Amino acid sequence: MKKLLIHTLLFVTLPFATLQAESNLTINNPFANDPIFKHFQKLHEEMNKVFEQFNQEFLADVAIAPNLKTDLFQTLASHPKSDFVDRGDHYELTVELPGMDPKSIDINVHDNLISIHAKSEQKKEEKKGDKIIHQERFYGEVQRTLSLPHDANPEKYTTEYKNGILTVNIEKKE
Questions:
Q1: For 129-162, what is each residue's pLDDT tens digit?
Q2: Strand partners, 161
Q3: Edge-to-edge strands of the sheet including 165-172?
Q4: Closest by Cα among 24, 149, 139 to 74
Q5: Within 13 A of 138's CA, how many CA atoms are on the CB side?
Q6: How far does CA 39 lie from the centroid of its chain?
């Protein structure tokens, strides 16, 4: 049992160990000749190869298509962060929608689902000859759909958009 526990511990911690072949660091490992440990070590090496290959291919793709990285992060940004809280007599949903025009925010509550869709457009404020050095702000469309609890009343809700935060209060059924 003790040996199984040690093998499990090594299996869990081994992927997080940072060992490099070119390092002069040597570790006295009492399990180095253990056949089970060798299988885990081989698995660790294979996983490192997979991640190295992915990183090389991803970086090569970024060199070929420089907008790929930006597109990837914009796709991730198109899923706004939200909090959904039971306030006792009602539910409160808050969604981060920074920089969105309040007129572009569309809220649809139907069949115990709430869908929020919003859009922002990039304003071109560059002057001729300007070069963007670094840009992280998101422009485009976002959408978020969440299931409502069974006692939420999809007919009765109020909304408020302030400082880039959309708050939706949904009454509970009586």
A1: 888 777 777 677 888 899 999 999 999 999 999 9
A2: 166
A3: 82-86, 90-96, 165-172, 152-162
A4: 139
A5: 20
A6: 32
3-state secondary structure the chain: CHHHHHHHHHHHHHHHCCCCCCCCCCCCCCCCCCHHHHHHHHHHHHHHHHHHHHHHHHHHHHHHCCHHHHHHHHHHHCCCCEEEEECCCEEEEEEECCCCCHHHCEEEEECCEEEEEEEECCCCCCCCCCCCCCCCCCCEEEEEEEECCCCEEEEEEEEEEECCEEEEEEEECC
- Domain locations along the chain: 2-64, 80-124+134-172
Distance CA 150, CA 39 (A): 49
- Residue 150's φ and ψ, nearest 5 degrees, are -60, -25
d(CA 30, CA 36): 12
CATH architecture for the domain at 80-124+134-172:
Sandwich (2.60)
Alpha carbon 149 to its chain centroid, in Å, reads 24
CA 37, CA 64: separation in Å to the nearest integer? 41
Q: pLDDT (tens digit, 9 = 90+) per residue, 72-130?
A: 555 555 678 899 999 999 999 999 998 888 999 999 988 889 999 998 887 766 677 88
